[in-house]
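Workshop exercise sheet. Pairs work together: one partner reads the sequence aloud, the other fills in the structure field after running the prediction. Swap roles for the next sheet.
Pair: D.N. / O.F.
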Amino acid sequence: MNDKKRKVLRYLGIIMIIVPLIYFGYSFYNVKKGEMDHKKDLKAVDNINDSLKDDLKKIDEDIKKEKPKEEQKEDIKKKKEDAYKNYVGGLQNQYHNNDVIGQLTVNKTNINYTLVKSHDNNEYLYINAYRGYDYRGAIFVDKDNNRDFSDFNTRIFGHRMLYENTMFSQLRYFLDQSFVNSGNNYFKITSASGEKIYDICASFIIPNDKGYVPINYESYFIKDIREKSVCNFGVNVNYSDNFVTLITCKPTRGGLPAKKRIAVVGKLRK
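Structure field:
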């Protein structure tokens, strides 16, 4: 082997070492940046949450001072509605985005994200709540759902990141009965229609077809919750209940495009 070939092989070897290092270094940087950005967002959202708590506390204090008369109840109701509308307005100002409709927090996980809703489900696949490019996208409500979570079932989508525990990655925990058995399986949505708590009642691995999870009432959906859940959550469901279903991809080995999805269903606590 002549010197020229040796040099070519040496350079190829160096390239084969450097390129993976650059790739993994860049991936590590993105993960850390995503974590820092999320913490920064949560700090801003916490301030908005504190304002909401202060408003609600003031309303409750006013109620305690004097038992409200029948004619005052509507006024109190409106004040609370205004407090939640102001909360969403604060989120929209923070993100400079009128598509923002509230905040989702899933207990026992690090899922704590601002919710957006667009006229197009593809819009937020690679755009965050600030409307800037982000390969993580945003957590978004299905375009066909109402903004006030009044549908029989509201579908909420988010990416499952393959190499990091961000976005909807930790929904997979609800496929593990031992995790479920630790209790307190619920998530909370705060929006202009108030604070709503959903007790998780089922988890599924479903086909890569969002139509499998209906928005309007379908008897098979109730039947599947009762009979086909991967885990037993011990929550009874009825035909008159309202649901929110959190949906994410279930990556195949090697990170190939997902052919199935994970769906975690919550029943509105009354």
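Discussion prompt: Residues 75 and 261 are 45 Å apart (CA to CA). What would you look at next?
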